[in-house]
Amino acid sequence: MPCLRERKGSSMKDVINLAVVNFTAFWGDRDRNLRRIVGYCEEAGKRGMDMVVFPETALTGYDNDTEHPRKEKMHVRLSETIPGPATDAVAEMAKKYNLYVIFGMPERDAASGAVYNSAAIVPPDGSAKAYRKLHLPFDEAEWAIRGDDPVLFDTPWGPVGVTICYDTYCFPELNRYYRAKGCRLILNVTACPDAPCTAGSARLAIPAYAMVNYEFIASANLTGPDLRSHFIGGSSVVGPDASGGGAHTYVGAMFGDPGSEDPGMKCGTVDLSLTDLYGQIPFFTRNTEGKRDFRPDLYARLYQDLARDDQ
Question: Is the pTM for the entire model greater than 0.85?
Answer without folding.
Answer: yes
